[in-house]
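Entry for the shared binder. Reason: the reviewer on the internal report wants the predicted structure included alongside the sequence.
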Amino acid sequence: EFRRVLFRSGAGLMLKGNNSNHIKDGIEQILNDDTYKENANTISKSIRTAGGAKKEADVILIVIDSGEIHA
């Protein structure tokens, strides 16, 4: 799943639950830790270099379908 790709890349996190406090805590963590922004920028540059969002979306779908991440 795409959320796992974001988590593994350091650009996202897995919430501890799905109530409003868990969501609020997750948002605060992302906003207060520049590492998430830096990792998201890295992914963004990679997407542009690899041929744009359409190409990267195709790659993400392949990863989701196969269940594997290749470096």
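Summary line for the report: The longest helix spans residues 34-49.
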